[in-house]
Amino acid sequence: MAFMVLFSTMSFSMDMHFCGDSLVDFKLFQQADDCGMAMDGTTSDDLMGVENHCCSDVEVVVSGQDDLHSVASDISFEQQNLIISFLLVYTHFFNEVDKQSIPFKEYSPPLLIRDVQLMDQTFLI
Fold this sequence. Notes:
Layout: H1 2-9, E1 12-19, E2 22-28, H2 44-47, E3 55-62, H3 77-93, H4 116-120
C-alpha cells in the first residue's frame, strides 16, 4: 500500500531523442542529449521555409496526485470494530503450532508384576 501511495503522488518526466526512427537517448528526470545531427547556420532549405529535420524530441510528463483522501474517516466505528476483531480472531486461530507438547513423553511405563496373558491363558495364534 505504501508503494501505491508513493507512486500515485510522485511526478516525473521522461525525455527521449529520436534520430529518424531509432531511439538515440533516453533520460529520466533530465533532458535527453541530441545525437549531434543538429545543424548550425542556415541552408537553402531553411531559406525556402522547408524544414527537413531527421531528429525529434519527445517529452512525457507524468504528474501525480496532489490531494489524497483519508479512507479511515469514511469507515464507521462499528465497521472499524468488525475489522479489528476479524483480524485478531484470524491471526489467533489460524497460527500454526510449531510443536505439540506431549505430557507423558518423559515418563516410562510401569513394570509388570505378573504376566496377565499367562494367568488368563489368552494367547494370540
